[in-house]
Amino acid sequence: MPDHASSTDPSVQRQLDRLWALSPGADILGLERIADLLARIGNPHEHLPPVLHVAGTNGKGSTCAFLRAAIGAAGYKTHVYSSPHLVRFNERIRLAGTLIDDAQLAPLLEEVLDAGGDIGASFFEVTTAVAFLAFSRTPADACIVEVGLGGRLDATNVIAEPIVTGIAQLGIDHERFLGSDIEGIAAEKAGIAKPHVPLVTMRYPAKIEARIASVARTAGAPIAAEGGHWFWSADETHVTYRDAAGRVVTPLPHLAGSHQQANLALAIAMLRHQRVLTIPPEAYVAAAEHATWPARLQRLGPGPLTAKLPGRTVLIDGGHNADAAQAIAASLAGSAPIDMVFGLMSTRKIADVLGPLAPLVRVAHAVPLIGHEHHDPRDIAAFAQAHAMPRHCYPAFSLGEAIDRLAANGEGAPTVLIAGSLYLAGEALAANDELPS
What we know:
Elements: H1 10-22, H2 32-40, E1 51-55, H3 60-73, E2 78-81, E3 93-95, E4 98-99, H4 102-116, H5 123-137, E5 142-146, E6 164-167, H6 175-178, H7 182-189, E7 199-201, H8 206-219, E8 223-225, E9 230-234, E10 238-243, E11 246-251, H9 259-272, H10 281-290, E12 298-299, E13 313-317, H11 322-332, E14 338-342, H12 350-357, E15 361-366, H13 377-387, E16 393-395, H14 399-408, E17 415-419, H15 422-431
Parallel strand pairs: 1-5, 1-6, 2-5, 6-7, 7-8, 13-17, 14-15, 14-17, 15-16
Antiparallel strand pairs: 2-3, 3-4, 9-10, 10-11, 12-13
Helix pairs in contact: 1-4, 2-5, 3-9, 3-10, 4-5, 7-8, 11-12
């Protein structure tokens, strides 16, 4: 699954070109290469602020966003490592609350690439080493690390002593690397469990919970499971969380979608089950109100793209598997019918992602994902028309062409959704001059 990155800064671009030539972004699971690479640059992962480590199929990025907002509201400075980026490579590395700037990034990339040119490290492994090196050299009070793929063999799993680990929502994804057995996937995610470190989990089917518990026991990690150790509920205005230490009440998350309530609850549970950072109740309220995470049912603001669709709400979402598509559909049920621009990586099944959204869609335009291996828009349109998912689906050669078509239809649906891929969401953000910050 190739990854791509470019920069407007020539110094950064030179290093990204080196990274691409060294390893064309393939996902390679295993800890040997990352361990060797980190050893050559002084093992920076052993000198990080207290780490919160988050795995999961869906929702782990949003959970990290809630963690960051709560920790920041408590007065702490926080590093964050996340993936992928949407527009700029810099989005992956947040130093003490601020995205890494080009002047810092270029020499760090050069240092890591110079040290590990013969190791054969992947794009993600090099990026992970760069992030850890940056974190080790910049003071902060905490470090939030999002797993890239899986958990047990993910490059981030070299962290030996986090203060808490967590698993967000689980589903089938990355079958090429993790298989299609949901219990096996759960075991891989639970592989981030560490001795004596709380592993905080959501509510899952009984067999999955049992598999996670087995992995945790083997690792010597105590489990804090939803439904056993902590609970949450929501009404029309509030989320209520409770555990043995008491209750926390917050407003509904500002992040769109009812599924964000569970992600907020998981973040609260993770912070309430660690003992290093002191988080007051008002910080959880601030997290609900102020956490942001781009391309999750994000409404685009004024810009060149939205100017072509005056009076219409334009939403973007990077959800690219069946569970994510179902969550998007549930959140947009009251907005139907919608018009959609849709693109999908070739590693995804059209029916899995398009199917849940199709009943809401009046007309769809299928587009390519420039620079990435994707389903041909003609194939998406043919599949949609053959299965009425939706029947009115047409191929377009670009996002711009699809938007122009929607603009030409003066009687289009009031809501436009750009969906199917984080890469497409990133393209839409760039087209609207709306860079993540």
